[in-house]
Amino acid sequence: MQEYLTQTPVASLIFIITIITTIMAFNNEHLLNNLILHPYSVYRKKKVYTVITSGLIHGDWMHLLFNMFSYFFFAFSLEKVMGHWQFALLYIASLILSDVPTIFKHKNDYGYRCLGASGAVSAVIFGYILYNPGITMIIMPIPIPIPAIIFGPLYLLYCHFASKHARDNVNHDAHMYGALSGLIITIALYPPVVHEFITSASELIRSYLHR
Q1: Is the peptide bond before 153 cis (omega within 30 degrees of 0)?
Q2: CA 154 to chain CA centroid, nearest Å
Q3: Residue pLDDT, tens place only, 46-61
Q4: Are 119 and 98 in contact (CB under 8 A)?
């Protein structure tokens, strides 16, 4: 634990605070209502802070475990390669930007509320993919490793389709715009990553074709 706090203090702090705040909100409805994103209110310049605090709470244990499991495998590695304040900027900015489309989409829906760190976690995953396109990823329940350069486009297409057609109460817009924010912010902070990504991806594609 000391190693994580020393080498990746920002990722560690976000990880710890998110888990603690979520567990506290599980047992405190007043806290949950104060932290959850309510687009109707935010659009009217009330409880604007919830664009950030809603990312510190989750709907249930499975929601928390899935997001933090994904976060754990990518966030600490990403902070090491991109830097501390850069990682903090990417996470917080993506958390906010991933919620903006939802705020406008549901600005007149008083009963709509949403929560979770999925937008920011998607940003972390896609930021890491830019640095390391050679990784493989497993999407449950499919037990087959998928190369990141294939996973990325498929994920964005799925989020776009699900946003328009799904009825599963999952905020797919946040996933998609979080992922896009992660890509844009990572490139803005370290422009050479584009050339490095293209070079690595090209080598990967050539290796697949010659197998």
Answers
A1: no
A2: 16
A3: 999 999 999 999 999 9
A4: yes
CA atoms of 202 and 209, how far apart (whole Å)? 11
CA pair distance 186, 134, nearest whole angstrom: 17
- pLDDT of 4 strictly over 60: yes
d(Cα 68, Cα 117) in Å, to the nearest integer?
A: 9
| Termini Cα distance of the chain | 41
Q: Which amino acid is at 103?
A: I
Which is more confidently placed, 195 or 167? 195
d(CA 101, CA 145): 31
Pairing of strands 146-147, 136-137: antiparallel
pLDDT band at 74 (very low <50, low <70, confident <90, very high): very high
Query: What is the separation of C-alpha 42 from the centre of its chain, rounded to a whole number of angstroms?
Result: 21
One-letter amino acid at 99 equals D
Residue 164 CB burial class (10 angstroms; 0-12, 13-18, ≥19): exposed
